[in-house]
Structures are given as C-alpha cells and as structure tokens.
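Input (structure):
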C-alpha cells in the first residue's frame, strides 16, 4: 500500500481519479470546498494543501481499497513519466497491489516446479519475494503470501535433504508456522505441524514423529485427506522403527480412507508403504502383491515419486535371494535418478539399503 509523505495538488488529483469522483464529489468526500479542489487540479505539484487537509487526504487514502491504491499509484507513475512530478513523495510499505497478484502467480509456478523437482527454478521464484520484503512490514495479505512462500521453501529444502539446521526445512516450517499463527489460520498451522512431524521422521526421531502423526490424524483443523495422510505416516514411522505388523494395520485403514475419498495417488502411495511393511515382517509374497498394485496404479510422472517407487520395489526384490540381482539393478537406476535431480535424502536411503544388503549377503560382484 502506498504512503504519501507530503501531499501536493498532483497527489490529490491522482487520488480523485483513483476514486473515480468528480471535482464536486471529491470535495464532498473530503469535506473541503470545491474551489480548493479546483486549485489543486490547476496548480498540481506547485501547490500544497494545509496541514489539516494533509491529514484528511492521508485518511482518505488509507481507507481506500486495493483497487483504488492500484489506480492511484498508476496515475502517479504516469505523471512522473510525463514530467509532472519532480520528486518522489510516496513509498510503498510493502508490495504494490498488482505485485500481490504476481507473487501469487509465482507461488503457483513454484508448486509446479517442486512437483517436477526443478529446485533451482523454484528457489529463484521464492527468493525473489522472500529476500525483498520483511514480513513485519507487510499487511495481512502480504504476510499470508510470505508464510506460504516460507512453507514452500521448507518443502524445497526437505526434498533436497536439508532437514535440520539454520538453512533447513525445520527452520522454514517453524518460520511459516509463526506467521500463520500471527494470522490466526488454524488449518495452515496444523499443516505445518504435519510438515514438522515429517521432518522429525526424516531426522530419525521415529517415536516422536509417530506420536505427532497420531495426534494430527484426529485433528479437526486438518482436512479429511490430510488426516488420512497423517494416519498413513503413523504406519510409516512405526514400520521404520520395526513395528511392521501394527504399522500394516494402520496403513490399511488409511488406504481405505483414501479409497472413500477417491484419492488415487494417495491410495497408490499407501500400497507402496504397505508393501514395505509386509517386507519388514518377512511376507515377501504380500509385499510383491502390494508393490505391483502401487506400480500399476501410481502416477510416477515426477522424479521424486519414481525414485520412491523404484526404491521400494528394489528393496523388496533384495529380500529374496532369487531376485537379489534384479533388486540391485532397480536400486542402481533409482540412485542415478536421485543423483540427477538432487534428491539427497532418497540417495542416502538407497545407499543405506545397498550397504545393509551387502552386509547380509556379502559384497556385490
């Protein structure tokens, strides 16, 4: 929003035009005489309203909506180009109105870039706004966009494997959560709590993550889909901790929920998780059954999902001596794809699986 430091007839005329008022209507709007408005219109930047009238103009501008501010700034910009304005008398305390629209568009583009693991482009889109404005100086709409940008930065850092530290997903998620708390948006706060639980799981704090997931799985602030995802991730954390039997039952319940919600991608991912849980209890037949469902129904159009699917498939194949070599080849392809797109966390997971396999069966020949 624009702030005028010192009004002249030029800024007053720009405000009248932005409000789309006649000279007479503008005079009534401000509570001043028509002659005063006519003087401003004639002399423009060479005349200055009295101090008490300056305050009236401040109030009129402050009470105007975003569309009026947009037109006001446009008229002044045009006046500057035509030499009618000798110096800059206004500043914007945050983005101009039309910049909010561009910022929103860039966030949509960021979501697409992250889905394709185009991290460099996503980082550029986010930082052009995060480094430009201080959230404390923005209005509520600006802080909302800053909070969304910070949360997406956390997603980017998480996908790149930067989980803990000052430049990490945990730090970004905490910052975004703080902004959404200031704005009092419970759903977004709960979503950040869910993201922070994922960070706990990725950093090896499996019991803590499982407890957080269990709480969020029944949290009314979240959508039904997000609650089902939290329930699925309870099983994921438990499975990583070795409690595969109970994990499989929890995951199966989440799978049914995704089916009721008609969420095919989540349903497919749930089968992938179920496959790994059954591998954990040694039921390779069921593990292969569920991974085949995941591979035949899932959309692996993003490198991240392809790597996750191939990693799960390779891990299961490694569990049977008869398919061990096939499993290693699948993991090799997954590792190459993970390295190509900078998926550090997934790459480290693949290396861990291969090292464990070599420890159990001897080095690969």
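Output (sequence):
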């Amino acid at each position: 929003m624009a702030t005028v430091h010192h009004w002249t007839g030029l800024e007053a005329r720009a405000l009248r035009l932005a409000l789309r008022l006649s000279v007479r209507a503008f005079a009534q709007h401000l509570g001043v005489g028509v002659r005063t408005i006519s003087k401003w219109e004639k002399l423009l930047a060479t005349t200055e309203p009295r101090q008490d009238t300056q305050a009236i103009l401040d109030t009129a501008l402050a009470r105007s909506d975003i569309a009026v501010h947009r037109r006001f700034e446009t008229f002044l910009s045009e006046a500057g180009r035509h030499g009618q304005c000798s110096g800059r008398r206004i500043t914007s305390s945050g983005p101009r109105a039309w910049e909010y629209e561009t910022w929103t568009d860039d966030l949509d583009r960021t979501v697409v870039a992250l889905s394709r693991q185009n991290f460099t482009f996503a980082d550029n889109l986010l930082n052009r706004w995060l480094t430009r404005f201080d959230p404390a100086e923005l209005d509520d709409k600006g802080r909302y966009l800053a909070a969304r940008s910070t949360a997406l930065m956390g997603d980017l850092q998480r996908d790149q494997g930067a989980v803990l530290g000052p430049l990490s997903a945990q730090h970004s998620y905490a910052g975004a959560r703080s902004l959404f708390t200031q704005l009092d948006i419970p759903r977004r706060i709960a979503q950040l709590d869910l993201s922070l639980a994922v960070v706990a799981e990725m950093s090896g704090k499996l019991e803590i993550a499982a407890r957080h997931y269990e709480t969020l799985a029944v949290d009314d602030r979240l959508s039904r889909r997000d609650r089902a995802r939290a329930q699925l991730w309870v099983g994921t954390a438990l499975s990583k901790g070795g409690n595969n039997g109970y994990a499989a039952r929890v995951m199966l319940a989440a799978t049914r929920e995704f089916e009721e919600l008609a969420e095919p991608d989540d349903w497919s991912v749930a089968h992938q998780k179920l496959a790994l849980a059954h591998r954990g209890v040694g039921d390779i037949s069921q593990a292969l059954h569920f991974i085949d469902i995941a591979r035949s129904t899932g959309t692996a159009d993003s490198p991240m999902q392809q790597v996750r699917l191939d990693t799960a498939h390779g891990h299961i194949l490694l569990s049977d001596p008869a398919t061990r070599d096939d499993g290693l080849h699948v993991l090799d392809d997954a590792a190459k794809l993970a390295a190509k797109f900078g998926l550090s966390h997934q790459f480290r997971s693949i290396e861990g699986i291969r090292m464990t396999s070599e420890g159990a069966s001897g080095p690969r020949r």
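Notes: The beta strands are 2-4, 90-92. The radius of gyration is 29 Å.
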